[in-house]
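PT: before anyone asks, these are the final sequences, not the draft ones from last week. 1372 residues across everything. Please model them as a single complex and drop the result in this thread when it's through.
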Amino acid sequence: MPASNTLPARVEQVINMKVERVLHPFSPLTVDEITQSAALIKNEHPGVELNFKCITLREPEKEVMKEWLKAEEGSKPQIDRKAFAVYYIIRTPDVFETVINLTTEAVESKTKLGAGFHSCADGEEILEMERVCLADEGVQAEIAKLQLPEDTIIVADPWIYGSDGIDDERKQWQCYLYSRPKDNADSNHYANPIPISPVVDVATRKVIRIDRLPTGIDDTVGEIQPHKPILNEYTPEHQKLRTDLKPLNIIQPEGVSFRFSDNGEELEWQKWKFRVGFNHREGMVIYNVSYDGRDVFYRLSLSDMAIPYADPRKPYHRKQAFDLGDAGAGAMANNLKLGCDCLGTIAYLSFPIADDKGEPIVMENCICVHEQDAGIQFKHMNYRTGNSIVARMRELILQSIITVANYEYIFAFIFNTAGELSYEVKATGILSTAPLDPEIKECPNFGTIVHPGVLAAHHQHIFSLRIDPAIDGFGNKVIYEEAKAMDRDDPFNPFGTGYYITETKVESEGGFLESPENNRVFKIQNPKHRNPVNNKPVGFKIQAPPFQKLLAAPDSFHFKRAEFADKAVYVTKYQDWEYFAAGQYTNQSRGGHGIREWIKRETKFDTEEGDDVVVWVQFGINHIPRIEDFPVMPVETLRVHLKPVNFFDKNPALDLPPSQQSVNKSVLLNVEGNGCQKAQSGACCQ
Amino acid sequence: MPASNTLPARVEQVINMKVERVLHPFSPLTVDEITQSAALIKNEHPGVELNFKCITLREPEKEVMKEWLKAEEGSKPQIDRKAFAVYYIIRTPDVFETVINLTTEAVESKTKLGAGFHSCADGEEILEMERVCLADEGVQAEIAKLQLPEDTIIVADPWIYGSDGIDDERKQWQCYLYSRPKDNADSNHYANPIPISPVVDVATRKVIRIDRLPTGIDDTVGEIQPHKPILNEYTPEHQKLRTDLKPLNIIQPEGVSFRFSDNGEELEWQKWKFRVGFNHREGMVIYNVSYDGRDVFYRLSLSDMAIPYADPRKPYHRKQAFDLGDAGAGAMANNLKLGCDCLGTIAYLSFPIADDKGEPIVMENCICVHEQDAGIQFKHMNYRTGNSIVARMRELILQSIITVANYEYIFAFIFNTAGELSYEVKATGILSTAPLDPEIKECPNFGTIVHPGVLAAHHQHIFSLRIDPAIDGFGNKVIYEEAKAMDRDDPFNPFGTGYYITETKVESEGGFLESPENNRVFKIQNPKHRNPVNNKPVGFKIQAPPFQKLLAAPDSFHFKRAEFADKAVYVTKYQDWEYFAAGQYTNQSRGGHGIREWIKRETKFDTEEGDDVVVWVQFGINHIPRIEDFPVMPVETLRVHLKPVNFFDKNPALDLPPSQQSVNKSVLLNVEGNGCQKAQSGACCQ
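LR: through. Structure below.
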């Protein structure tokens, strides 16, 4: 977790955030509001120190917001600003959640959570766990047995403990140990895992157990052997860098095509208009998306992700992370750097969150906004006249990158010039590794040897994207279409070539599988609005890559906890504050508080008038590590597309200016010099 | 079909192609060789006019090439240059295929094909069919019944006839008619289809039948009604163009990172090295792909594609195009224009093919070559030090765009900086439309109303990519891996969280389905070369999007002809000149000469030593038209990825120079002016 991001921000930035303005109901908490919330909460607990886990905007009820959105400027109903907070009484297991009314300066509710509810990590807690672990004499005695070379030191990565029902009621951390050279703080310690794994109790700040890791291909645990580190570094100073990659610059001579308003929280670009929010847990949130004045989505965010591991051996059997619920995509967001994370003309957004003391910190440059050329949008050449029309696709990208210990995720909301919206995840960073006896040369079937003496276990990454739609207004329905061969005996199909489309309505809350073999396509439609030309309900379709569902057994804790990971699409009836598919509290959870529970309501939908449906789209990868993924992995990319279907009355990109050399200023490469006499100089089509 | 591309090229270009050099055995035929081939063939047929369909390189036998590739420069065995040609005796059904030895100037073989074998279209033939159709008095009499407004003229699109076993032995064309304003040659006539469909016999150049098209939702045919055109144009002068999209330029101040040699047919870029070829049928062909001196692929090309339509009614029941076999991806290639089809610094390649007279024509700028930034290649941030490393992915793109009447395909071979190779297809252009009675407001279940009185029938696009591998040398095998949950009763899996990988060898020729629910991954491996670290066979995996297989009934002509469209992956034993998955002659074919026939050989593979396997990867989309796809459709993109798996001993992109602002020269957008005080200036991470 990025300690650097959790340092208190510089004062002037905090001041910089104190903007006098009327806050939009979806505006993230300001620095002042965070300070005010913490003060009100501290008043509730005189004389004790609190460990804050989050202080975040309590969004208004949807019915209230509907009224607010409908009302004219100036006559908007006043909505109280509220905060939602979770905190511990430090060094105790007592965790509370509370709702603060910032307008009335009152604590509206305060609940002490029951046993088995644990809140997320925070940067300070993680660093503290590392200190406790390495300072423990028992741990040091075990480490001594490794007979490490001089100038080698041990690094502890505290890992979310997980659940197995065995003495796991209290909040604990499983620490995985690695070695690195003392003189290289940026050494890739994951190349040298150590078979010692201390468990730290959070409340007492004590090592309560030292697990020994199996280092063979079975689950037996041997004696600790002397460890001879073999380095495998990813930093450039350890590489012989290639020198033949020429620079490529993206120049926007007239600046960008997008426009910010409302303190940077509102964006307009190519007929799209929407609000940007940011919170500790979800990171980026997109609100009130409209296209050319027509509503499309009410709220979009990544709900959660589950990363279960394949290695069945203790303590790896507990290894399943929920990086949003256990850590937070907002809290772990990188400070993005100009010229490193994006090309072109880039805008950066920064938002405040609360640190462990309840103090506001500014997450600097946690979202970057830029445009990208995305190749040809459409082309047609009339073969009779030889005239061709080409237009290029442009994308607007809102990107946020998170670091969760060893691993990185690059998240992006991508809007394009054809009325399409995509959510993209790129997985990179470093594999979580385990020690393996160096004499073992064959990979076990649950992992890959990525370095001598190092095993990277298979694992799944399963994401849940929450879509709260407003397709052409509120009141939507979900259907799926399939393509089927016409009956061979149907007299209408005498040659056996015909096929047709079937439509299935989602009549009530539930979970559904994809079915590529039937070309199953899920659509969100507004049943009250019909396309003027073909009379189809206006809608958007969901294109998500098929994926293997959670492999853990249905009675396992992995399965019970990853409540969204067994279906491609879940549809629920909207409930206020029902954001997190695996529940509000995922850390050491046992399930029963997320989407699999919610659908038991079996709420029926009104598919005639439309209803308040929420669509949860799951996607992911089963990561069978390649050695090419180490010491740092090339990105693996996943994209979920939301595309209009009979929402417009023709191609919405038709009014794009044609692609012309006078604007694009491409350069002809004369390859004669390389002995090639085939390059022809091309004049522009316009 | 691009008539403009089939006009004889300017003389100086033809001369320009006459390069004195030693030709590589994979060099496409030169202008001289095409001329020489035509002359030798014409000598065989004194006194008759020939209609040439193709004159193309007859590639050497693979065993011969293996010797040639092994041999030292200077001591290479001499390989005779050969041509393969197909031609008709004009105005007869007599079609011949022949092999010409250009070195010995001899006709090596000449075969008159049997009944039921028909060759492809050519630009001149298509224009002639259109002339014959529109000049026919019977057709004109039918058109008169439309009572078209003045200044409206009829356009005929000749369509590949297809097969249904009913009087379809001779080569015919099915012409679909449309109207357009006389004064706009670039009008989108597909918005005004006409229910009259003449059939033209190629040999006699006569209209032999005038089909009437059903215009309701069933297969009945009514009287021809007066037609009132409603225009739906795609050209910019008919749009109110958006004015707020700012220019975006890609600047490569030091030029490109790739290098051509051998007359532009050999390319080197970022450790990749390969040859580029081009022919009438496949268009781009990639040969002898190596990475850092290690062989990867022997030959890569798009083998064919099938586009069957869903509408079961006569004559639509025959509508299935094989755009490579019936027309040719080389013959239909666009002349790419600087600043229209690509951004950045672009090189263009041109290659000669033969026209219908057997004369060489230069397909100018039929391939463009350029680099593209592809976002982050890898990133890791050390949360303890706050130091992060980012490298950006670069791609090298070889692009070719084809126009087949109404439709466009954008094809690209894409190489990247992580040792990955992709094949991309983007579908765009104009839907093939059919007339519908204007009073019909509800779409039939086999098509979508995309304009008043216009139906776009559902159709599938199924592609077959031919991969002739040489992973770390010749002698490869194919396997597929699946991920499976460990047995719940396995004592090794006490908590039910474990899963493992199974491997299945492809032991003999056959076809296989994808299985995303099992995370099935096909890999091409070299069983004789093992990864030095983890002892796995070196290999590349295939990542292709799952797709719905051909929906037509197994006894239908659609199914019999689309021999590759029912499986995700076919594996065959290499046979010389076995390139085309639906057979050499797809036009009006009846099946039995393609891959479904070849696998009946059931050749066993040597999976220990490796064997000469060829892998055919199918992918596609079931296109259920949206009104947004008309009058010209936004691109739909498909990508097949070939990624190294345990081929290297670590991330091959590790030596990429880190992404730095000093090189990237990104620009910080100060959004204060837009009322946003949140943009922070970012210093570079380096």
